[in-house]
């Protein structure tokens, strides 16, 4: 009788182990769970954290729970900007935003002041991969340190850490997606008006550790980073060569094991917007590249509020980026 009972229990255990687990419900708690954070947050949920000679801003949601793992979104500012501007235009710290039904921990790193562009502008904070960034700054290592620091001091779902960025920050987000080790830290990537100079590996030099879910937004009226690309800047500097965005998206599709033909094409998911998606694997849901092309939009983060200089009929963060992130979790 005992042996029969034991055999029955073992059968139940084997059956339970074979059942599929829902990615939406699965959480991997980080070291910072179960204890009060040593960081001091102000009344708006913000903390400015120093990490060596670098810094980043963290925002925790109103419903942050130290015993419940939360998703994290890193968002990288454009050239000459700062964490506060990136927080404003992305809206990632707004109340009520959820990933996996929990409030989001938003992280805004600060770039190092670069060497300046060849148009005479004063140098501003920049990210690795741009010709105006300092060549000896390792922003990939800094980002890994930021992820480790946040995970060690807050309750983080390590399977739901995401990277996003605009312009130079978008180009750097592509570097993270292309890095064989950094790419494995993030469940998905979002690039807005990305400055994809050669140093950001838009077409070559990109060696991700696995398939990469990537979503990209670009305006057809962008004169800073033209949708059709450019051979050089106005000073004829070849360091400023940029790829055609459609070619860039197709290249990512090939890298994810897809064909260059789109599997989904929607003419108007939003007004004046075309969506094309490359999703090519019946067994790997992470093999997907999604591109939004916005007619009439300049060098801006799509928003109905126009906080970044351009008004659209949709908010990229809430209408597209967060749903895309929510669908992807690290295996």
From TrEMBL:
- What Gene Ontology terms describe where this protein resides (cellular component)? extracellular region
Q: For this chain's UniProt record, which GO biological process terms are given?
A: xylan catabolic process
The chemistry this enzyme catalyses reads: feruloyl-polysaccharide + H2O = ferulate + polysaccharide
Alphabetized, the UniProt keywords read:
Carbohydrate metabolism, Hydrolase, Polysaccharide degradation, Secreted, Signal, Xylan degradation
Give the enzyme's EC designation.
3.1.1.73
Protein origin, superkingdom: Eukaryota
Q: Give this protein's Gene Ontology molecular function annotations.
A: feruloyl esterase activity
Signal peptide start and end residues:
1-18
Broad EC category: hydrolase
* Subcellular localization: Secreted
Output the InterPro entries linked to this UniProt entry. Answer: AB_hydrolase_fold, FaeB/C/D
Q: Which SUPFAM superfamilies does this UniProt record tie to the protein?
A: alpha/beta-Hydrolases
Q: What is its main location?
A: secreted
> What PANTHER family does the annotation carry?
FERULOYL ESTERASE C-RELATED, PTHR38050
Q: What is this protein called?
A: feruloyl esterase
């Amino acid at each position: 009788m005992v042996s029969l009972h034991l055999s029955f229990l073992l059968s139940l255990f084997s059956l339970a182990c074979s059942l599929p687990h829902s990615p939406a419900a699965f959480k991997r708690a980080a070291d910072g769970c179960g204890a009060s954070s040593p960081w001091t947050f102000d009344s708006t949920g913000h903390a400015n954290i120093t990490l060596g000679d670098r810094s980043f801003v963290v925002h925790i949601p109103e419903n942050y729970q130290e015993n419940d793992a939360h998703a994290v979104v890193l968002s990288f500012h454009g050239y000459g900007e700062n964490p506060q501007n990136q927080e404003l235009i992305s809206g990632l710290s707004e109340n009520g935003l959820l990933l996996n039904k929990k409030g989001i921990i938003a992280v805004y790193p600060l770039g190092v002041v670069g060497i300046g562009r060849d148009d005479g502008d004063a140098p501003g904070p920049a990210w690795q991969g741009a010709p105006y960034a300092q060549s000896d700054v390792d922003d990939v290592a800094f980002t890994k340190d930021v992820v480790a620091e946040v995970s060690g001091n807050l309750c983080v779902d390590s399977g739901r850490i995401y990277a996003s960025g605009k312009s130079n920050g978008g180009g750097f987000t592509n570097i993270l997606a292309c890095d064989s080790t950094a790419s494995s830290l993030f469940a998905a990537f979002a690039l807005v008006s990305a400055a994809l100079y050669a140093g950001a590996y838009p077409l070559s030099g990109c060696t991700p550790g696995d398939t990469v879910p990537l979503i990209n937004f670009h305006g057809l009226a962008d004169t800073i980073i033209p949708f059709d690309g450019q051979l050089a800047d106005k000073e004829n500097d070849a360091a400023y060569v940029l790829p055609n965005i459609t070619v860039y998206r197709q290249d990512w599709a090939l890298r994810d094991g897809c064909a260059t033909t789109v599997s989904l094409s929607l003419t108007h998911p939003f007004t004046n917007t075309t969506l094309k998606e490359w999703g090519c694997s019946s067994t790997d849901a992470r093999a997907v590249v999604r591109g939004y092309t916005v007619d009439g939009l300049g060098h801006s983060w799509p928003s109905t509020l126009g906080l970044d200089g351009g008004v659209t009929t949709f908010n990229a963060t809430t209408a597209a980026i967060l749903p895309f992130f929510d669908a992807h979790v690290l295996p």
